[in-house]
C-alpha cells in the first residue's frame, strides 16, 4: 500500500475532490473493460481469454494515470479480478490457465455474468452485468430475471439517499423480485466501501432471512456503496459445491507465521500487487502459487471466495454498480446502457411505492427523505 495510507490526517472521503477523481478514474476503466468483455462474449469465446482481456484493459488504462514525473506514486490496478460465470455457475468463476482448459466455450443462449473492478490509490469501483450470448431477442424467464435485476438496481440507486434505512433498501429489492416473479438470492450483500476496503461491516442484504440478519442503519452523506443484486428464477438458495476456489483476498488482521517459502512468496506478491483487494490465481506469477495459497488459506492469512451455484435449469442475473452518495446528488459511476429492446418481458413494475422511487430525482435536497 502507498505510504500515505497510514496518514490519519488525510481526507479519504468524498468531500475531497481528489478522492472523487480517483473513484471516477477507476470507474471509467472498469466501464471500458466491461464494454470490451461484453463485446467479446460471443459464441465460441473462451472464458479464460475474456477474463484475461478484462484484467489487461484495467491494467493498461491504469498505467496511463498518475505516472508523470514528479507525481506521487499510487497503488493502482485490479480491484476485483474479471470473473465470467455461466448459466448455473453464479459467481466468482475467474479461471487460471489450467482451469481455463477445462472450461467450455460460450454458446448461443448462455446466460453470462461478468464481474470486475478497478482501484486507484485504494479507491475501488466495481461493476457486474449479465447478458445472453447471441443477437436474438430474449424472452421468457431469462428476460424476466435480467429485467428484474436491472429494475432493482435502478430503483435502489434512486433510493440510496441520506436517511433511508438499510432494510428499506432490502424491502425494495424484494418487492421488485415479486413484481417479476423471481427471487432475490439469499446471502448477497451490498457493501459500503472505503479506501483499501472493498467490504466494510456496513452492508445491505438483498433478502431478509432469519439466518442473514444485518445491523440496520441509515444511509449517510459522502458514502460509497457497491450495490450488489442477484435475481434468480430458482428459490434463491445458492449452493457451494466445494469447487476449488479461483478468487482470493488477503485478510486484514492475520499475523500468522507461514512455514513454506512458497507461501511466503505468494503473500509477498499479494501484498505488493493486490494489497487488500481480491485476486485470481492467474494474477500471480509464482510458479508454486497453488501450493502457497493452500497454507495461506489454512492459516487464515488469505480467504477464498467460494464459487456459488444455482440449480441447473434456473436462470440467474447479477448486476453491481458503485454509487457515490454526495450532499448534492446520487451518482452511479459504474454503468453501461441496458438494451431494453432485446430483453422483452410481459412483467412490469406496478407497485406504487416502487414507481414513486423511479421518478425521484438523483439530485438531493437538504431535507432527508425517509419515505422508503
UniProtKB/TrEMBL annotation:
Boundaries of every Peptidase M24 domain copy: 21-229
Annotated InterPro entries: Creatinase/aminopeptidase-like, PA2G4/ARX1, Pept_M24, WH-like_DNA-bd_sf, WH_DNA-bd_sf
CDD domains xref list: PA2G4-like
Top-rank taxon, per record: Eukaryota
UniProt record similarity statement: Belongs to the peptidase M24 family.
Record's protein name: Peptidase M24 domain-containing protein
Protein source organism: Paramoeba aestuarina
Lineage, highest ranks first: Eukaryota, Amoebozoa, Discosea, Flabellinia, Dactylopodida
